[in-house]
Amino acid sequence: MRARQPIPGPSLHRAYRRPGPCAVAGSQVTDKATAFEQAAAEALKVVGADGVRTLAEEIGRQRPRASVLSACAFPGFLESGTSVLHAITADGMDSSEAAAYLRGLAAGHSVGVREQEVSLVWSGPSTHQVPVRTTSRVLLQLIDSAQRELLLMTYSATRYTPLTHALEAAAARDVRIDVVVETLQGAGSALSGTEPASAFLDVSGLRIWHWPPGNRAEPGAKTHAKLALADRRVLLTTSANFTQSGVDRNIEAGVLITGGSVPTRTAEHVQELRRTGVLQRYW
Hints:
It contains 9 helices and 11 strands. With 283 residues, it is an alpha/beta fold. The strands form 2 sheets. The protein has a 9-stranded mixed beta sheet with strand order 4-3-10-9-8-5-6-7-11, with helices on both faces.
């Protein structure tokens, strides 16, 4: 674990000595994110716009550190707030400017989540009269677009070479990849052959999750969702399993959602299922 740095004292008001992230230095412009900008972006991912807005209010009022960090009960608020406070000190920022930046970040995110694009996705035969997006292409493009995190969930899975290659490329970009699959034990007699998880064994660093049968309140309950999610922004939910038949051959239907709150809420739901132990590591 990274060693904790000293936490700022009760007052956050400090002279602002750093030029802005796009300040002109001679004839060159730098757009490298500062420690504060990075901490603020991470906080937004963890606690959302409401948590960042609360953090901005407390910092803007120059509240003591303990008051800032206890202002919100959101999971991860303490850790995110601590990182932001450290970064304010590290960058020599004025508390009022830090608060203004955080308010703008939260407001921008709130506007962005309202801008949502939805399109239909199909597997199987196509028609010239009604062009549609194909499941295989959309799935691979979604994986190729991921820069930070990728979540897949499927009932059945067999090795599908284009999918494996796309996941390997994402892993090489240091994308964190989580896959939730059904197991032969969980499916009972509905699935046979090799474990669905074996379809992903060639991808190094990928984490596999499952819903242990002992955690299922009702006999016969299945892990039946099929979805792919990139960076909490692009969500494909589909009837297609992640097999060649599912994404190419069968008639399957799905929806691709870009932007809005639905992708984020999906990620948060699965994250909570993992945190509470409903979903557990398979390997």
